Structures are given as structure tokens and as C-alpha cells.
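Re: export button greyed out
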Amino acid sequence: MLRVQPDPFDPGMEANAFAARAAGAGAIVTFTGIVRDTDARLAAMEIEHYPGMTERAIAAMMDQARSRWSLTDALVIHRHGRLAVGETIMMVATAAPHRAHAFAAAAFLMDYLKSRAPFWKKEMGVAGTSWVAAKDDDEDALKRW
Amino acid sequence: MIDVLYFAWVRERIGLPRERVATTAATVAGLVAELSAREDRYALAFSDLTALRVAVDQELTTFDAPLAGVREVAFFPPMTGG
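Workaround output, generated via the alternate export path:
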């Protein structure tokens, strides 16, 4: 299941609902991304996206994950718009018969969401705004797949 | 006519999110050259193509991609999702 939305969501409720649907899976991995403020300079985060391509790109990543690992289910929720510090940006959940597949598929989806899903983060700081630059580490992370 | 979309700082530099463009360019690179020749704000946005990514009909591609039959081209910086 895939959702791209401006609205907040409750990762705990989503994880429970995912687990209920994934009855029979031996392993569920969830990852939650949160707006962080490492040095108290950030007021909010604005996330822009490319409607249409975002959904297509994530659906393609999820198809690839399903073909590489034996998943019984997968979930991606990603928000856009204005988010305050501490708010949940996104979550990934994977369900598989065994944990190795659930962990690997979740890490794969995270790495691809970082660099291949059309989202752009802008930091609204106390001293001004700036677009978040893509990190070489994030691009390098794709090479392991 | 092709729909050309701009995102993030590319959108801010050019000053609009999308426009309809009449082009005779054969490739994305040709379209970039046409746009850059229009005005400084385009030339500035496209001054360093290594800092840009391009999608054609909502699929990531490269600047040598052909434009024949294409409906939508989008320019944006490297993505920062997750």
C-alpha cells in the first residue's frame, strides 16, 4: 500500500493495522522518519513533491522490492507540505516470512526513497530558508543494491 | 507543445512551476539550450546541468533523451526524500 499525503498520520496505528493485514508473516520491520532539529535552528520543514511521478516512482520501488525479496506485504506513507520539528515525515513497513527479507526490503526502500522519489526538502530556519542538498552518501547507498 | 515543469530551486530561479513550450528540439539538451537562450533566469537555472536531474513523462532519464512524442519534461535538483 502506498500513500502520499499532506496530513499527519499515527505510525503506531499504521504499524498495528499493517500487522493485522500481514497475519501469517513471521517478521515485520517498520521505519519512521522524523523532522529533526540537530542544533535548534530549524522552525519547520517544507516538502515539495511531483504529483503523479511520486506515486509512480514509489510504486516501481515497491514492485522491485517485492520481486527481490519474499514479502507478504509492504507499506510506504510519505508526507508533503509543511511539517514542524518532531513530526513524522514518512514510514516504511515490510512483512516477510523471515526477518532478513523484511530488513533488507525496508532498507532498500529507504535508500531509494531518499534519492529516487521526487521529493525536495526545504528547511525553514530561524535565520532563513534553504533547500536541503542531496548527500553523496545517499547516492552511494544505492550501489549496494 | 510540451509541458515543462520545474521543482524546488529550479522553480524558484525560473519563477514559475510549469509552462507550455513550443519546441523544435530533438532532445532534452536541445530544449535546455532553447530555454537558456530566452532569458538570464533560465540560463542561470540551467548553468550547471550536473546539479540537475530530468524526468521525461515522469520517468527519470538523461539530458540526451529524445523528445519525440513526449508530453511532459520536468527539471529539478537531486531528490531529498525519506
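The mean pLDDT of chain B is 97. The button fix ships in the next patch.
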